[in-house]
Structures are given as C-alpha cells and as structure tokens.
Specification:
The chain is an alpha/beta fold. The protein contains six helices and seven strands, in the order αβαββαβαβαβαβ. A seven-stranded parallel sheet has the order 3-2-1-4-5-6-7, with helices on both faces. α6 links the parallel β6 and β7. The longest helix has 22 residues.
C-alpha cells in the first residue's frame, strides 16, 4: 500500500471533503462522480486509480488489509463524510460454501469499514455523515448466505454508530441496492447466482443509487440516521 503524500495539502478548505472507498468502479465510482458534481472534494481509496478530474484525489488502498487503512488516511484533514462502497460477491449454496470467501467478504465489507470509521470519525466535524453500502440481499437470498451475512452485519454496526454519534449530529445510514448495472454482475465469483431482472424490468442504475447517496450526504440528510434504504427496482416485492 502506497499513498499520495501531497493529497492532504492540496485539499481546499472551503468545500466539504468526503472519503469514498471503491471509487474506481461501480457504485463507488458513481457516488464519487455525484459528490464531485455537487461540489465536494473527494479522496478516493481503491487498488486502481480512476481519472475523475478536478476535486478528486486518490490513494492506493488495500481494503482486504484493514490494519493498513488507518495509516493510509492518518494525514488527511478532517473529513465531512465517509462512504464505504468497496465490495465483492462470492456465491454458493449450503454444502458448497467456502470459508475463505466468507472471511474475504467480511474483511472488505465490515472490517475495512470499521477500521476507517475508527480512524476518521473521531476527527470528523459535528454534523458529518457516514454512509455504508449494503445490499438488498442482507435479508437473505438463495445462494448468497455468506454475502448476505456480511451485508447484514453493516446494518447492526451502522445503527449502533448512529446511536453513538447522534449527540454530535453525525448521521449514519446504510444504502442497500438490489441488482445494479455494475461490473460486479459479470464477476465469475458470483456465477452460481446469475442476476435476475427486478419487477421494474431493468437493472438498477448506479447513478440512481448515487443520487440517493448524494441526498443522504447532503444538507437535507441531516434529519435521517440509523436507517436502511433499499433501492432495488422492485426486486424485494
């Protein structure tokens, strides 16, 4: 893991500052683009560097190594929002479950979120935001028990943080998309459970997920905390 040492010094003080994981593709990238359009400065954490233009700073980070993340962000100025969107999916039915798959997903989805929040939120200004990207499948879906378990863990963790941080006006919410049109759907690791079109007949647009994220992270999200927002195109009907 290496860092861009000049990132902290380059961040303007006038704009709100967000840290977004998984910024190089999928929902994480869509949220990053949305925040930049809304006038945020964004520090993105990922393994590969995206080119997202003015206001964006990138640091290489390995979300599968949570112990390395505190050092990765320790020299950043205080952040106004933390968005944990990095993730991956491995699927299998009971009897064919891989313990390493469960451990890997738990590490990236839950342990990395915990490590980053532990490092960043104590220095976050009052009125800040934490947004965790969960999944509609957190309530259960055949072939996805391990993935669902790791995403369900975010609900309990996020709701607990919401209670702890409410006195500081810091909101914590979970955004739980259904089948979204991202590269994850083509990942061979989830081939056992091919995506199904939801009731509305189309995969969820990642820009729609990002628009809801932008609202929750923005000024009018200040009265919403400890909630789980499902955006699934009707898959949960």
């Amino acid at each position: 893991m290496s860092a861009e040492p000049a990132a902290a010094a380059e961040l303007p003080t006038a704009a709100p500052h967000a840290v977004v994981t998984g910024c190089s593709s999928g929902i994480g990238k869509a949220i990053t683009v949305r925040l930049l359009a809304d006038g945020w400065q964004v520090t993105g954490l990922s393994r590969s560097r995206p080119e997202l233009g003015p206001g964006f700073l990138w640091r290489r980070a390995d979300l599968s190594d949570p112990a390395s993340l505190a050092a990765c962000v320790e020299d950043l100025p205080p952040v106004n929002a933390l968005v944990h969107a990095a993730g991956f999916q491995r699927t299998a039915i009971l009897g064919e479950l891989d313990p390493d798959a469960l451990a890997g997903m738990f590490t990236v989805h839950v342990a990395a979120a915990s490590s980053l929040a532990n490092a960043l939120v104590p220095r976050m200004p009052d009125g800040g935001r934490v947004l965790l990207v969960g999944s509609r499948t957190s309530t259960g879906s055949p072939g996805k028990s391990q993935y669902a378990a790791t995403k369900a863990a975010l609900l309990g963790m996020g709701r607990t943080w919401a209670q702890e941080l409410a006195p500081r006006g810091i909101t914590v919410n979970v955004l739980s998309p259904g089948p979204t049109d991202t590269p994850m759907l083509a990942d061979p690791g989830r081939a056992a459970t091919p995506p199904k079109l939801p009731a509305l007949g189309k995969l969820v647009d990642p820009e729609d997920v990002a628009a809801l994220a932008g609202f929750l992270l923005g000024h009018h999200g200040k009265s919403i905390t400890g909630q789980n927002y499902v955006i699934c195109g009707g898959a949960s009907l």
